[in-house]
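Batch manifest, entry 17 of 40.
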Amino acid sequence: MKFATLIAEPWADYGLVDSGHGRKLERYGRFRFIRPEPQAMWAPSSENWRADGEFVPASDEDGGGRWHLDAGVPEEGWPLAWEDVRFQAQCTPFRHLAFFPDMASHWSWMREHVGDGSEALNLFGYTGVGSLALASRGAKVTHVDASKKSVEAGKANAALSGMSDLPIRWMVDDAAKFAAREVRRGRRYDGIMLDPPKWGRGPKKELWQLEEGLPGLIEDCAKLLDGDSRFLVLTAYAVRMSALAIGELVSQSLGHLGGTVECGDMAVREEARGLSLPTAIFARWSR
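Output type: C-alpha cells
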C-alpha cells in the first residue's frame, strides 16, 4: 500500500485564498466566503479578510450554525465550472456550498481510468459533479443518493453543462441497499466512487453510520468489480479514523483483484502562501 497526499490546486472558479485561526477564506466564482476550519491552526497571511458572507457555527457543538450573507449573494445559487463541467454553487445549511472542491484531484484521476462505454457507479453522489466529470469522458454512470433534492440538483447541473443527453442513471436510493441489490443482480462496474457521510438517513429513513456500515459496503463494492475493472475511490470527511484504517479495509477487500491501493490525506492548496490545508482522508484502488 502506498501513502500519498492529494492536494487540490486552485482553478478559475475556486481557490482557498487564506486560512488561519480556525477559519478559511475561499473564493467561489465572484463571491468570497469565510467558513470555520479547525485544522487551520496557524496564523492567517492577512488579518483583513474581505468576504461576501460567513458561516457562523452554533455554540452547542451540534454541527449547526447559520450563514450571514451580503444582500448580493443569490439564495438560489450561481453557476461555476470545473473544466467542462458546469454546476450550481449555493450556501447550504450544512456550511458547504453544494460541492466539495478538494474532490477535483479525484475527478481528474478517475477520468484517466474511464473511456467510451465504461460503467461507473457513484454512491452518495450528491449534486453530481463527479458523475458529470466521468460521463463527459464517455462513461455510463449510475448516480445514487438518498436525497431527492441532491439528485434533482445533479440533473440541473447536467442541463447547465449541456450534458442532459449523456448516459447517467439518476437514482434516489439508499446507497448501501442499492449496492447490495446490484450484487444480487450480478452487476459489475469498471469503476466505483463513494463519499459516504459520517451518518445519515436513506429515503425510507434507513440509518447510516460510517463505522458500522462501511466494511459491509466495501465488501459489496468489491463484488461489483472484476478482473477488468479499473478503480475504486473512497473518501471520508470529519471522522475519527485514519487514512490507514480505510486503506487497509480497501486493501483487504479488493486484494484478490490485484492492482494498487493508496491512501492518505486530501488537502487544498492555499493561494496566499502555498501551504496545504487538510480536508479529508481517502483510499483508492486502481489497475
